[in-house]
Design brief:
Elements lengths: L2 H13 E7 L5 E6 L2 H4 L2 H18 L5 E5 L3 H14 L5 E5 L12 E2 L7 E9 L3 H13 L2 E10 L4 H7 L3 E7 H5 L7
Parallel strand pairs: 3-4, 3-6, 6-7, 7-8
Antiparallel strand pairs: 1-2, 4-5
Helix pairs in contact: 1-3, 3-4
Length: 187
């Protein structure tokens, strides 16, 4: 089994629940994908690093840094940074706080991101794209050059359209339909 297939299997095993759910966007759904159950696991970190870098590198997007809104983006960014180091093509990780820190330096972006850096915003699961846009606003206000958005799971609920209309490259590892259908279908 290849890395992408195993990551899909792990997401289905650990992160996919069926039932009646209210999403962060306020929409109702018959399924919920808590990708953090996968992205925080040891195997999930390993697989997200490998598969995520393949998606990034095959797209032609060349970030120096990856990160996004805490906390869903944090394990994805760290997995990519770790794997990039092993591949000897380092990409650094950062995290965007929902609000500026109320003490010390008052940072809203953690990890040492320099002004002007080329970044890709990462998400564990993307629905409407509003969380990614929130992170993008903070990053661009800081002076970062946002190249695009990479999500582990695209719920196919308008996020891709919102982000591409705003001028950002959109990358995904999986569509939700791929996790909801039997292996080999739903692509």
């Amino acid at each position: 089994m290849n890395h992408r297939d195993r990551l899909r299997e792990l997401l289905v095993e650990r992160s996919l629940e069926k039932g009646d759910f209210v999403l962060a966007s306020g929409a109702r759904s018959s399924y919920y994908i808590d990708a953090r159950r996968t992205t925080f696991s040891a195997e999930g970190q390993y697989l997200v690093g490998i598969v995520g870098l393949q998606v990034l590198w095959s797209s032609g997007v060349t970030p120096e840094w990856v990160g996004g809104l805490t906390m869903g983006a944090d394990p994805v960014a760290c997995a990519l940074a770790h794997r990039s180091w092993l591949e000897q093509e380092p990409i650094q990780a950062f995290s965007v706080r929902k609000e500026p820190k109320g003490h010390g330096t008052g940072n809203q972006i953690e990890g040492g991101l320099p002004t002007g850096a080329r970044v890709v915003v990462v998400e564990d699961s993307l629905t409407t794209g509003s969380s990614a846009l929130r992170a993008i606003r903070v990053l661009e206000g800081f002076g970062a050059n946002v190249q695009g958005v990479l999500t582990v799971v695209d719920r196919e609920a308008g996020g891709e359209e919102l982000l591409t209309e705003a001028g950002y490259t959109f990358l995904r590892i999986f569509r939700a339909s791929e996790l909801l259908s039997p292996p080999g279908e739903g692509a």
